[in-house]
UniProtKB/TrEMBL annotation:
<feature type="domain" description="Enoyl reductase (ER)">
    <location>
        <begin position="8"/>
        <end position="343"/>
    </location>
</feature>
<protein>
    <submittedName>
        <fullName>Alcohol dehydrogenase</fullName>
        <ecNumber>1.1.1.-</ecNumber>
    </submittedName>
</protein>
<keyword id="KW-0862">Zinc</keyword>
<dbReference type="InterPro" id="IPR011032">
    <property type="entry name" value="GroES-like_sf"/>
</dbReference>
<comment type="similarity">
    <text>Belongs to the zinc-containing alcohol dehydrogenase family.</text>
</comment>
<keyword id="KW-0560">Oxidoreductase</keyword>
<keyword id="KW-0479">Metal-binding</keyword>
<dbReference type="InterPro" id="IPR013149">
    <property type="entry name" value="ADH-like_C"/>
</dbReference>
<dbReference type="GO" id="GO:0016491">
    <property type="term" value="F:oxidoreductase activity"/>
</dbReference>
<dbReference type="GO" id="GO:0008270">
    <property type="term" value="F:zinc ion binding"/>
</dbReference>
<dbReference type="InterPro" id="IPR002328">
    <property type="entry name" value="ADH_Zn_CS"/>
</dbReference>
<dbReference type="Pfam" id="PF08240">
    <property type="entry name" value="ADH_N"/>
</dbReference>
<dbReference type="InterPro" id="IPR020843">
    <property type="entry name" value="ER"/>
</dbReference>
<dbReference type="Pfam" id="PF00107">
    <property type="entry name" value="ADH_zinc_N"/>
</dbReference>
<dbReference type="InterPro" id="IPR013154">
    <property type="entry name" value="ADH-like_N"/>
</dbReference>
<dbReference type="InterPro" id="IPR036291">
    <property type="entry name" value="NAD(P)-bd_dom_sf"/>
</dbReference>
Amino acid sequence: MKAYVFHGPGQSAWEDVPDPGVREATDAIVRVDAVTLCGTDLHILKGDLPEVRPGTVLGHEAVGEIVDIGGDVRTVRPGERVLVSCITACGRCRYCREGTYGQCRGGGGWILGHLTDGTQAEYVRVPYADLSVHPLPSTLDSKDAVLLADIFPTSYEVGVLNGQVRPGDTVAVVGAGPVGLAAVATARLFAPERVIAVDLAPARLDAAKRLGADAVADAREAPEQLIADLTGGLGADVVVEAVGVPEAFELCTRMVRPGGHVANVGVHGEPATLHLEDLWIKNVTITTGLVDTYSTPTLLRMAATGRLPTGQLVTHTFPLNHMEEAYDVFARAADTGALKVVLGEEPHEEVVPYQAA
């Protein structure tokens, strides 16, 4: 089969690799119908995650069809269309039994495209399939469903739920990339008084407006003053950090009201200054987290009934074998306007038939 393989910082290729086979009785093999790219993949390609070994197939989000299963798989069968979650869950360890699958200690957590071969391929092996793939309703398009593998659960769980958004709140989302935009959309589910999006790119601020932001602000133009003006000087009840750079996190702590919440979603590669000299007296709650994907079944039901604007985040589509072109467009988002890039193989006959390893 073909797959997108990481060979070291700055080195990757769409190339021939062996088809994956069932290794454990809990495995499923999925033929990939749709896959998307993530900012984390760009970090890997730059060498920011040294634990990713050269030779690893990238990707942790996909929609596809089950073609083979191990003997212990009970919840899906060959021929079923499924969502492949970005998080793998063993279902047995303490964290999985508590529903915090992202911290799985039984061989799961974020492993696809990280510690094991991922989804940017014609076929992918999914360990612990019973808890790591989700059957899809026939009404949900693959291009829409694939956004529920990562960005919508991440924004909803780590941003909106950890931030404890409530009716009547003022919510500020710093960073209007795909995860930030999904946070704008899912925050609306809780009837806040207003949602304000902050970003540097006018195109992303326009997208935030389309997804329900009541106001937008350029990050270079003192957005904390806009928040103060809108809230009588108090600040936002909830601030979601969806960038992953120190300046964005520090901005969030300046925008939150006393007693409010800062929900950090962004992936940080550098230290950020925590100004406890200002925050200690303000009763501010700061949360961090890796997505657990416990909300995925709920989000799937909402998407199937049109309650989530998933398709609005997809700006570019490509055939699966145009992976290198798709990465180029995604990496140059400031020039291309890319939000989510989705690749898919249409029709199935163009994919080499699966041959178990």
